[in-house]
Specification:
By secondary structure, this protein is mainly α. The chain has twelve helices and no strands. The protein has helices spanning 3-23, 28-31, 38-62, 67-77, 85-93, 97-124, 133-157, 159-195, 200-218, 225-234, 238-248, 255-290. Helix 4 crosses helix 12 (255-290). The protein is globular.
C-alpha cells in the first residue's frame, strides 16, 4: 500500500470517528430535528442550497480565476455541510439538536440536490456535466449517515458507555486528522501556492463571508441557531467538492489543492466570526434579561 493510500485511509477514518463521537452524544430526535420544523429547514436550505450556488456562480463569472478555482467554488457551493461541522457548531450553540439535525437533513437532501445543481450550473457555464447519484450517496453514507447512526444506536443501547467513549473517540479522530492532513498540506503546498493570485484568495474570502452572513441572517430568532447556520453555509464538505471535481473534470489536477486552500481561508474567517460572536453573547444576554 502506497503512502498516499495510507494518508487517505487515515483521513477517512478520522472523519468517520469524528461523526461517531457526535453520534455518541446525540439521539434520533436530534437527527430528525429539522424535519419536524419545516420553516427552519426551508431557511437553512435557502441559505445553503440557493444563495451559495448563486454566489459561487457570480464569483466564477466575475473573477478571472484559474479554472480549478472556479470548479472548486461550484463544487463547494452545492456540497452539504462537512462531517467535522457538528462539533464546532455544538460548541458555538451550546446544544446538539440543530447542528446534528442540519447535518442529517443537508446530507440526505444532497443525494438529490447535488446532481440537479451540477446539471443546472453546468448549463449556465456552457458545459455538459453530470454527477451520478451513486457518487453522492456513497460519500454521504460512508462519511455521515452510517457513522452517525452507529453512534446514536450505541448511545441508545449502552448510554453510560457511549458517554464515556465520546471524548476519547473525538480525541483519536482529531489526532488522526492532524496526522493525515499535515502530509497532505506538505505535498500539495506548492500546488496551492501556484493558485494564489488572480483574485483566488479574494474569491474564497467573499464566498465564505457571504456564507457566514447568509447563515447568520437566516438563522432565525434564536440567538444560538445563528452561528450554526452561518458555519454550515460557509464551510462545505471538502470530500464532496473533490468528488464532484474529479468526476466532472478528471483532467483538472489543481481542483483538490484549490479545495484545500479554501479550507485554510475558511478556518481563518470562521475563527474570526466565532470570536466576534463570543463578544456579542454578553450583550445578547443583557438584552434578554432587560426584555
Amino acid at each position: 500500500m502506497s503512502m498516499t493510500m495510507i494518508i487517505l485511509l487515515t483521513l477517512k477514518l478520522s472523519i468517520m470517528l469524528n461523526v461517531v463521537a457526535v453520534g455518541l452524544l446525540s439521539t434520533h430526535q436530534d437527527a430528525l430535528y429539522l424535519f419536524t420544523r419545516p420553516r427552519q429547514l426551508l431557511r437553512s436550505m435557502l441559505a445553503m442550497n440557493v444563495i451559495m450556488p448563486v454566489v459561487a456562480a457570480s464569483l466564477a463569472a466575475g473573477f478571472n480565476l484559474n479554472p480549478a478555482v472556479k470548479l472548486a467554488l461550484v463544487g463547494l457551493a452545492v456540497s452539504p455541510v462537512p462531517p467535522l461541522f457538528p462539533r464546532k457548531a455544538i460548541k458555538a450553540a451550546g446544544e446538539s439538536s440543530y447542528p446534528v439535525g442540519l447535518l442529517v437533513a443537508a446530507s440526505l437532501l444532497a443525494i438529490v440536490f447535488v446532481p440537479f445543481a451540477i446539471d443546472v450550473l453546468g448549463n449556465v457555464f456552457g458545459h455538459s456535466v453530470h454527477v451520478p447519484v451513486a457518487t453522492v450517496m456513497k460519500v454521504v453514507l460512508s462519511a455521515v449517515l452510517a457513522p452517525l447512526a452507529a453512534g446514536i444506536l450505541l448511545r441508545r443501547w449502552l448510554p453510560e458507555l457511549s458517554h464515556r467513549l465520546a471524548r476519547p473517540v473525538g480525541i483519536i479522530a482529531m489526532a488522526l486528522l492532524l496526522a493525515a492532513f499535515v502530509p497532505v498540506l506538505l505535498t500539495t503546498g506548492k500546488a496551492m501556492w501556484s493558485l494564489v493570485g488572480n483574485g483566488t484568495l479574494a474569491a474564497f474570502a467573499a464566498f465564505i463571508i457571504a456564507g457566514l452572513a447568509a447563515g447568520h441572517l437566516l438563522g432565525g430568532p434564536a440567538h444560538r441557531d445563528r452561528p450554526v447556520l452561518a458555519l454550515a453555509t460557509a464551510m462545505r464538505h471538502p470530500g464532496m467538492a473533490i468528488a464532484i471535481a474529479t468526476s466532472t473534470f478528471p483532467q483538472q489536477k489543481l481542483a483538490t489543492p484549490a479545495v484545500l486552500l479554501y479550507l485554510i481561508v475558511g478556518l481563518l474567517f470562521t475563527s474570526l466570526y466565532l470570536a466576534w460572536r463570543r463578544k456579542q453573547q454578553p450583550t445578547a444576554q443583557k438584552d434578554r434579561l432587560a426584555a
